[in-house]
Specification:
With 309 residues, this protein is an alpha/beta fold. The protein has ten helices and seven strands. The chain has a seven-stranded mixed β-sheet with strand order 1-7-6-2-5-3-4, with helices on both faces. Helix 3 links the parallel strand 3 and strand 4. It is globular and about 70 Å long. It holds the Pfam family Acyltransferase.
Length: 309
Amino acid sequence: MPRRRIGFAYRFAAVICKPPLVVLLKRDWRGMENIPAEGGFITAVNHNSHIDPVAYAHFQYNTGRVPRFLAKSGLFNKGFVGAMMRGTGQIPVYRESTDALSAFRAAIDAVERGECVAFYPEGTLTRDPDGWPMTGKTGAARVALQTRCPVVPVAQWGANEVLPPYSGKPRLFPRKTHRVLAGPPVDLDRFYDREMTPELLKEATEAIMAAVTRHLEEIRGEKAPEEPYDPQRERVEQRRKTRAQTRRREHDGPSGREPAEHGPSERLSSAHGSPADGAQSGRQHQERQNEQRRAGERATAREEEGLNT
């Protein structure tokens, strides 16, 4: 199947973006020979900076195979940026709506037409404290198994040194190097001709993320953690800790000790009645605490169920 032509909009975007990127970043790019010359394929790329999509697009543009990124739908409505997103054929992702599956269908259609779709399998900027790839979401694996297209694992490092994740303050000097390593396609043959269960998709996603992480280890010259950072599991653990702390506070009282017996004057005051609004306020406060605790337990249960699917 022939490759997709680059088109005017992509060339115009390159004219605008390439000069500042050349000035801002030195380049150490390897593995361009692993980008397929023909036919549809997927690239799975790690995500560690708000500017790395532009830096990575520069790398792949220079291979002659331009990527189509999956991007938040809101970007497509923002003036010039939105016009460029639409003109270059990027794929909008509509989260938590009836259009949520349209990005998946568009990605499959693009691959079947012989195009490249670039996935950030982590789904967002990495939250790993040292910038390693997190656990991945299953979208890239799902498209790959349905189309049987090549999945090229790509690791990048350097844009995050210019603009660290979750930071609005760039570090322009000294000039940084953008390092990219594209590896050979991930071997997914063992996943074909099997029922596409959540377990299968999870296993295929882990194979893809493991390849990306290995390439990033080579770029950085150090070993990644044995277990990738899992933001969902971290949220579950944090809720557990918060719930345990709340229970201890409720049990120990404000002072951190068991509530003392009321003295005679307090018992007498209680017997004669306390202000009605104070008693009602106390009951309402307790009911709110109980409801918050129950809501937290329900959310934790849902997330724990998600970890096992």
